[in-house]
Amino acid sequence: MPGPFDFLKHPLAKDIGLILVIKLVLLMGIRSVWFDAPVGVKDDGVQVGLHVLGAPPEPSEKNPK
Fold this sequence. Notes:
The protein is built from 2 helices and no strands. The protein has helices at 11-34, 45-53. The protein is an all-alpha fold. It starts with 10 loop residues before the first helix and ends in a 12-residue tail after the last helix.
């Protein structure tokens, strides 16, 4: 009676397993480098609604006259 992991004795299965482990390690490394900090979500719903409806833009408080 064959065991549950007898398929790992084939060279092709070993190669595929090794490739999958390498891909997993690379993907986790990429994730830790580029996606380590959460991105703040800015709620611009009112401004987007005014833009869609064609209302004139509200004056910005960042550029005082």
